[in-house]
Amino acid sequence: MEAAREKARVLMEALPYIKEYYGKTVVVKFGGNAMENEALKESFASDIVLMRYVGINPVIVHGGGPQVTHYMERLSLEVQFVDGHRVTDAATMEVAKMVLVGKVNKEIVSLINGHGTLAVGLSGEDGNLIVAAKRLHRGEEGEVDLGFVGEVKRVNPGILHNLIRDEYIPVVASIGVDEQGQSYNINADLVAGALASALRADKLIYLTDVDGIYRDLEDRESLLPELDVSEAEELMASEAMSSGMLPKLESCVEAVRSGVRRAHIINGTVEHALLLELFTDAGIGTMVRAGEGV
């Protein structure tokens, strides 16, 4: 009987949030260790399905850097990074498309569909969803040519609106295309932020390998549960940000400034992290919100 009461309590705690998010769009960036752990992938898929069944419209964006590296090594291709960006020549671009679109994307779609809902896999090339431009990178020694590494120039969200209207779950691989038809490998964090902005999503959620944003990277007790845009920008300008977390926080700030109500950075290695963030009073991770005058 006590176990039943606890289930009822959990459901009642979740009820206000289910009502609040009903019909809203939530963009989720899926990546990190959660993509390589079978139990966590199943947990993620079941969270997404539950979100859909209670009336939320999830849109998933994924990368797959470790998987691309693995296949490049198998093909004896050189793996090279500059300031955390993968140098992407023509051969690397082909591998990235093969792995991200042909393998990782289909695996995520299959996991979700296995729970009885309908997910649809696509990349930024489909329907010109993500129009890309070559990313110009300036390093310590001047401008560096990263090859076919892109940035989001424009989003055409019509195909996503149509899928959401028909109650499908879009799963988007972070590949874009320019006006000449050239494919580009784009940081999935940036793609997630751009899609959330274009869709006017209620929430943007990044699943990462850490608990959130820390004021002091050396102090595990300095986790920041909430930041407004101004506080986030101050933190980005300081030396407290890790290079891996900076693009996520930048995307959160840009998305919130573009109309996304809330952006979250949470630990995707925690089982059912999405449900804990969405449907509990305490939540987990770090939330970025608009401040006064934003």
Structural overview:
The chain has 294 residues and is of the alpha/beta class. It has one domain: Acetylglutamate kinase-like (Carbamate kinase), CATH 3.40.1160.10. Helices cover 40% and strands 24% of the residues. The protein has nine helices and 16 strands. The strands form four sheets. The chain has an eight-stranded mixed β-sheet with strand order 5-10-2-1-13-15-16-14, with helices on both faces. Strands 6-9-12-11 form a four-stranded mixed β-sheet. β11 (175-177) and β12 (183-186) form a beta hairpin. The radius of gyration is 19 Å and the shape is globular. The mean pLDDT is 88.
Please give the largest β-sheet. Answer: 8 strands, mixed
User: Which structural class fits the helix and strand makeup?
Assistant: alpha/beta
What is the percent of helical residues? 40-55%
Number of helices: 9
Shape: globular
Give the count of structural domains: 1
Supply the CATH superfamily name. Answer: Acetylglutamate kinase-like
Tell me which CATH architecture applies here.
3-Layer(aba) Sandwich
Pick out the low-confidence regions.
Answer: none
The portion of residues forming beta strands comes to 15-25%
Strand order of the largest sheet: 5-10-2-1-13-15-16-14
CATH class (first level) name? Alpha Beta
Strand runs, count: 16
